[in-house]
Amino acid sequence: MKANAPTASFLVLALLGAVSANSRPAEVPTPGLGFFGPAQIYEVPNQATPQFCKERRGRVAKKIEDGVLLISAGKNIEGRFHANALFFWLTGVSVPDAVLAIRAVAGVVETERLYLPPKDLDFERWNGPRLAPDDSTLLATGIDSVGELSAWQADLEGLLTESSPFVAGEDIETIIDNLGRKHRSGTNLLRELAAVREESELAAISAAVDMTQQALAEAFAVVKPGAWEFEAEAAIESGYRKRGAFGPSFPSIVGSGPNSCYLHYRSNSRQFQAGDIVVMDVGARYQNYCADVTRTIPVSAEFTPRQLEVYTAVWDASVAGAATLKPGASIRDAHEAARGVLAERDLDQYFLHGVGHGLGLFVHDTPGFRGELKAGMVVTIEPGVYIAEEELGVRIENDWLITEDGAVCLSSELPCAPDELIAFLAKARGLDVAK
Ligand SMILES: [Mn+2]
Question: What is residue 433's predicted lDDT score, i.e. its pLDDT?
């Protein structure tokens, strides 16, 4: 494909009009970036503007009618902090330990308050600027009021209503428990509310998927006999970061030979051998959104007859599963269709997991296995066959946007039909693309 050829992002934006009741016109389309060109930085408009977040908080209030939602940003354990994705979805703020409280009365926001650590110049000297509980934060976030983190528990009594609060964050759950109050899952409430993605969110998801495909293509060029799994991992994660991703949305899986059969293999430490198959299950996190794409390729650039037989079965299962995707159906329908194909080939006993999951703010998101699919949701379809005694694992995973009358594949640019995959692999190997 030529550099700058349109990719899935443009397709998504063209389809969006009919997708979501919450959709808004996108100002700028995701850049369509072809494979093997110079890496270009994605500049998708921010999906967590004050305006978008305020509208989301309004939807929360409408949903809970009379009651309270409490959600925390989470702790900064190690590495680069990113807040609980649902906290960021509501606030656009990524500050460790921050808390948001919303009280709704008659379905509208009566009180909304963001609690932040105090201004601390010494902290900022070491770590850089941080939002503080002052007027500048009100201006930057559009949230009605801010307070110091130390005050939020004292404010609770005035906030809580008769109904059990919706709570997201273990730290807050503990505090509510200690008050002897019951609570409901704020995480479930918010995941359900956010599952039909807005247009701006779909542009971000699409960008995450695009850069994941491109990074995988760059890894295709690295996978050769004598190279190492970690070299492919490095190509993939470098591929994300140089395009503007936050990083991987989950630990990258590059499993060759026997490791192709370990579903959550993570050490990525084996040397590729001629004749191996290699499973690469990876995804970028961009803005707040996750991609999750798997490709399985032969290290010697050609499948053995047995590998081709199993690969083709998984591909056919993937096609059959994806064909069931439409509003009103569920991932379970796709699972049964995919399993049926594998059963015909006597491979279903090697299919060890569900065929897919919701995708978005989390790698495993709403809808669940039996949840009703709706236009604007994004799901993965990922059948797999793992024959440990043959050191032969195959998984193929694509990300799908549910539309009014079916679904569109967001990761279709990176081939997976057997003949197309082998042709693409040959092209990737012929180029020095691992920049
Ligand atoms: Mn997955």
Answer: 46
